[in-house]
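Hi P.,

Sorry for the delay on this. The queue was packed all week, but I finally got your sequence through. Input first:
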Amino acid sequence: MTDFSEKNFFDGEDFGDSPFKALLPKYYPADYQEYIRQETELLKAKVSGAKIILEAGVGIGRLIPELALMVGEFVGVDNAQRMLDESKKIAEQLSNVRIENVNLKELSKFFSEKYFDFSLCVWNTLGNVKDEVAVLKELAKVTKDSIFITTYLKGTLEKRKNWYKTVGINIRNIDEENEIFYSESGLKSKSFSPEDMQKLANASNLQIVESKIINNVMLWTELRTF
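Then the structure:
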């Protein structure tokens, strides 16, 4: 979460004091709940036994209890205060979890080269930033092995409309041709095809190790440096 408009959204401007349903899977439509389940199982299989992992865009810390006990250290970064506050509450319960206020375009200023075994940038975090290539390049600098990405899948416009309606996000405008949603608070949320991700990988000097669709709503991509 890196830009002012994004911070407005992730600091809860669209939700106020009500539950932040957009980051609480129990409120999701069934197809997105199943995506979350499958993604979590994939990540567990990939990162188990790692010395240290990064979640770029840790949000409310949903993955902390799922993954932290399987790795040596879990580092979560965000720069929306509401997200940091929520994830720190969960981090307090686990001695091997650190939460830091870091802009995703400045990861290499805070962490040394190849500091993390694996990096996670999931639940469309990449689709919410202004410059995907800049973020991917930063992730590549600080990651030794794989970077795991999940993004909204192009071609699922109606499912996304239902998702936003279900979790109570106020949509100001939809660019239906490019499948980009704009929330009232200013969030610009993009979607990607496998071909889009290949172009981003090429521009970031990364190679795609694995690409697959999760439950017909999200695109999973595993990237590595050459």
